[in-house]
Design brief:
Elements lengths: L1 H8 L5 H7 L4 E2 L4 E6 L4 E8 L4 E9 H4 L8
Antiparallel strand pairs: 1-2, 2-3, 3-4
Length: 74
């Protein structure tokens, strides 16, 4: 809920803007950003369309579940 509250108000225009808000965010190909939630207990994968100001949640799950997905195609 904390991530949603911050990101829904954010006006990120670039990866640097995201990195400023979330220092541990990981950027991958296909415009995916991986956020560690609750001390790395959970992972959140988001598709970022900074040209449109949109975020699409692609995956939410435990670290173990995350290890079983392909972050580039989810």
């Amino acid at each position: 809920m904390a991530w949603y509250a911050l990101s829904s108000r954010a006006q990120w225009k670039s990866p640097a803007d995201i990195q400023e808000a979330y220092r541990h965010a990981s950027f991958t190909a296909n415009n995916r950003v991986v956020f560690n939630i609750n001390g790395n207990d959970y992972r959140l994968v988001v598709l970022v369309r900074d040209d449109k100001g949109l975020l699409f949640v692609k995956f939410v799950g435990t670290h173990a579940q995350y290890d079983k997905i392909d972050v580039l195609t989810v």
